[in-house]
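For the sake of clarity, the format in which proteins appear in this thesis is described at this point. The fold follows as a row of integers, each naming the local backbone shape at the matching residue. One such record is shown here in full, so that the layout can be seen directly:
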Amino acid sequence: MRNLSLLTLVVLFFAACQSNSTQYKVSGTVAGLDSGIVYLVKTENGRPVTTDTTDLVNGEFSFEGSIAVPELYYLRLNAQDYFGRFFLENDKIEVTANIDSLQNTEITGSPSNDVFNKYLDEVQVMNEKMQEYQQQYAAARASGNEDEVKRIEFDAKATNDNMAVFAKNFVRENNTSVVAPFILLTQLSQQLQYVDLKELYDLFPAELSESLYMKELTKIIETKGRTAVGVQAPEFTMNDVDGTPVSLSSFKGKYLLIDFWASWCGPCRRENPNVVEAYQKYKDKGFDILGVSLDRDKSAWLKGIEEDQLTWTHVSDLKYWQNEVAQLYGVSAIPHSVLLDKDGKIIAKNLRGEDLHKKLEELLN
């Protein structure tokens, strides 16, 4: 069972609103360790960046300073022992840690962290439940009990759906807290459609607008707005397997599936037989496919096309995740597909399996 849980909180750095204080003081203790170096760390572009260090003396440490816009920070002991994820803001923050259980570090003292911890408590319960499902699923698969496999998949999906509902309600109920846009960005922004995402985004007050993660949300919303159901699909031109430019507008007059995939993508390759079946069934009734590959190796791309018998038009700039069309369409995971009507307007997204056949049957028969 792939991706049972979507609940693990993505590690990103983001800004938050300012508190009334103009200084922060982070005071902490590490039971079981008398000396060492403690690092104050944030994440930039997916990499940890140390912003300050201090000595651990008799098991105690402290950081003092000022931060213009609060952000998500971490503490680190010595070379690689990370602990204590928290929002650093201009307030007094207390850290209680134990060298034998750094994962259980407690952090109190800032309003943002009170809200953050309330959210994480619920996430932890859900994560534990999902871990149980994963263990049960592995056992059911090993024993060949397909009925049990289906039951676990159903229960896991229900739990995952419940978590998404909880996250959305949490954002609504805590919309004035810096934690709300953080959750919307890290947990919901990729899975929500444009209208639902924009509705939650519009709940945030103006004082949050300068935070970095609000700016990131703005970019995502702008991208999703360009590719929302009902709008004209953004035009693009990209070279096919022979180096010949192919424009999206050249497919007008047909229902077109823009299929984002890659030869290295296992889920894409597993879905390809279904796409091939749909193409063979409807290609003579006004349906076509334009494959956009996120490959970076041309030989692997061509081999994948041949092996899966993908006989429609294919384009790629071989830029991997930086594929320009994928960037234009806000593609963050593959397989990803966009279905256009004869005039080039988007009418559906991410139709897979039987859903793709049902939609094409509805449109073409």
